[in-house]
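Weekend entry, working from home. Most of the wet-lab plans are on hold until the incubator is repaired, so I used the time to fold the two sequences that have been sitting in the queue since the last round of cloning. Logging both here for the record. First:
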Amino acid sequence: MKKAQAKLKQPERHLQNQHRYYQFIIEKMETMAGKSQQMGVSIEEIASVSKEAAAGIEQTSASSQQTSSSMEEVSRSSKELARMAEELKGLVRRFKI
């Protein structure tokens, strides 16, 4: 009789083990789902920071181009002033007594 009862309890223990195993799997899947959500949020944050960095780089590039244009204008003006100074020197030499 005890052997029959032991054999009847085997499927019950097997079901309990399966239940614990499935619970374990469910817990791990929930953990993975939570981590996936965290990764999604992190990826969105990285994308946002990348967009801001790109905008900053574009702004820096535009400023550099503007500075370069300004420096070219200063260079042209300096050359023109130097030319005018030479011309003025020549005119002043004519009026020397």
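Second, folded right after the first finished:
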Amino acid sequence: MSHMVQLDRGAVRIGDLAIGDGMPVAVIGGEHARWVRGRVPAEETRAAWPGPLLVEPSGEPSGADDLAAVAELADAVVVGAAWTHDLDLVRAVARVGLPVVVQRGHTATLEEWLAVADICAAEGNDQVVLCESGSRTHLAGRTHLGGVTLDLALMGAARRRSGRPVLADLGDDPALAGAAVAAGADGLLLAPSASQATAEAAHEAATVLAALVRPEAHGRVGDARDAIDRVDAALAILLERRAGLAGTIQRLKPVGGFRGRDMDRERRLVAAMARRAPRLGEARLAPVMNAVIEAGLHLAEEERRGSDLATPEAG
């Protein structure tokens, strides 16, 4: 559907969604993009969804006409794990001119997986995204597709070796969303039928964890503000957790509240933070941390008073 926009190999644009170096973690199957299997579901989805759409042809397309029909609907074509061995089909997909998402076959080695991407490039289409879709194992009860386990180490190796963006196929299992982001996934691929819980877990990992582990570079105000929002989301969770820990300390200390503040420890804390945030430095961090500490102390005091009022007097 969309014309391919050539970016550096480290980033690929699918519709208006950029995936790769310096970009936020994309959730495909969530609010960022959709993907479906088969021409009929693609037609139905395209009628209701104006955003980026990835299509995996159902079975093996019978010829160029089928791929041409997919190209009219899709912003990218998914080479499914089950048919990456059909190299003639891979070449035909590459020649369509849309970005290609190459899933790893469940028994494919790293070299075999990367070779499929190289075939696309040889056909003049270097806009390739790699997708780790797992290996068949005996852990059928603990995997997202019955006997298939994601290899996040292999996914990371594929990214380092090829320089291409990588996705992690979560299926309908949200448990690995955070691990995939921490391992360097540029995007999370959800099953077309994934539950709302899976989608929410994927978006939470893409928002909060990615803000901590993933550098981003933006050239537009709106994109930079979106990145700040993700950092603020992570900051809110950390502040809430810190407040809870501070409340625990107030209950355990012999002298709590403002009278029990340890100013020497607070100065050491600010100095340690300044080593991690040298641009801010101690002078700027000190009032920030003072405000955070005082907010936690006020909260602990309010919760203590509330607890005292809720506890009936003995008698």
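Plan for Monday: verify the second prediction. Residues 2-6, 140-144 have pLDDT under 50 and may be disordered.
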